[in-house]
Design brief:
The protein has 298 residues and is of the alpha/beta class. 48% of the residues lie in helices and 13% in strands. It is built from 9 helices and 7 strands. It has a 7-stranded parallel beta sheet, sandwiched between helices. The longest helix is centred in the middle third of the chain and has 29 residues.
Length: 298
């Protein structure tokens, strides 16, 4: 297996943090990106540095705020200056929000899209010129089963942003194929433990509208959360998603799956995806772009 230079966004917690470690243990050089690495995230940087030293791994922290094009450009410039290339970007950075959709202002929803959707575009604007010059690379997107499976209420803006990200990943896969840049979409299901996703979730500012929904749906989110937890088998660990990311990165170029799902609850995303991928392949053949397709599921 060839060793890659990998950039992981949103590496401070959760799946991003776990992916940095899984990739580094597989022998890759991993740039763990996050905001404010010399300030509020300095302790996370020290933890990763100490972990890397103890495990003989190559992990390097890099400042990257997905809300800033200048920050994304600077991060990629740092990597290319130090290593001469960039082989893989893992689009993981994201932020969960919970609450009745009506209670979010358009500006609040815009902020969700800014992080979870437009953030990937800023990083791509920095990364893709490097990969096009190299005539090789892998863009790996961390999507969500909310884009295609069943999902509970009160996740509207988050689910919409993830669906938008998933959609643009599919479109860009065609557009990048002739530059020899691969696309893989990793699709985690719900995880009720093992990440700070729900603990750090945002909420709408409109308390009046939220209260109106609370009166009608009191305890519903807790009820859904309890049901999800009850459905989770003991092996339902988000580290499985990180392991899948490391597996895909380690595969030979040209053999990586287009989409890979890690869903312990079986919310229906796998069944929907099988149909959607068949339609995607058939339509590509009909309009004469079958050469741009990747292997579908794996």
């Amino acid at each position: 297996m060839s060793k890659s230079i990998v950039l992981v966004t949103g590496a401070g917690t959760g799946i991003g943090h776990l992916s940095v470690k899984a990739l580094a243990l597989a022998g890759h050089t991993v740039y763990a990106s996050m905001r404010d690495i010399h300030g509020r995230n300095a302790a996370k940087v020290r933890e990763l540095r100490d972990w890397a030293f103890a495990n003989g791994a190559d992990v390097r922290a890099v400042e990257l705020d997905v809300l800033s094009q200048a920050s994304a450009n600077a991060a990629v410039d740092t990597i290319v200056t130090e290593r001469g290339r960039l082989d893989v970007v893992v689009h993981n950075a994201g932020h969960l929000v919970i609450g009745p959709t009506e209670a979010f202002t358009p500006e609040e929803i815009s902020k969700v899209f800014d992080t979870n959707f437009l953030g990937t575009q800023r990083v791509n604007k920095a990364v893709l010129p490097v990969m096009r010059r190299q005539q090789q690379g892998l863009v790996l997107w961390v999507s969500s089963t909310t884009a295609r499976g069943g999902f509970p209420p009160f996740l509207g803006p988050y689910a919409a942003a993830k669906a938008a990200m998933d959609s643009i990943a599919v479109t860009m896969a065609y557009e990048l194929a002739r530059f020899n840049i691969e696309t893989s979409i990793v699709v985690p299901g719900a995880f009720t433990a093992g990440t700070d996703h729900f603990a750090n979730a945002g909420h709408p500012a409109d308390a009046v509208v939220s209260a109106a929904y609370d009166a009608r749906y009191a305890g519903l989110m807790d009820q859904v959360g309890a049901r999800l937890s009850a459905l989770m088998p003991p092996e339902a660990d988000p580290a499985a998603v990180a392991a899948d990311i490391a597996r895909i990165v380690g595969l030979p170029h040209g053999t990586r799956p287009f989409r890979s799902i890690t869903d312990f609850v079986d919310d229906g995303a796998t069944a929907v995806t099988e149909v959607a991928e068949r339609v995607r392949v058939e339509f590509a053949e009909r309009i004469g772009i079958a050469d741009l397709l990747k292997p579908s599921l794996g």
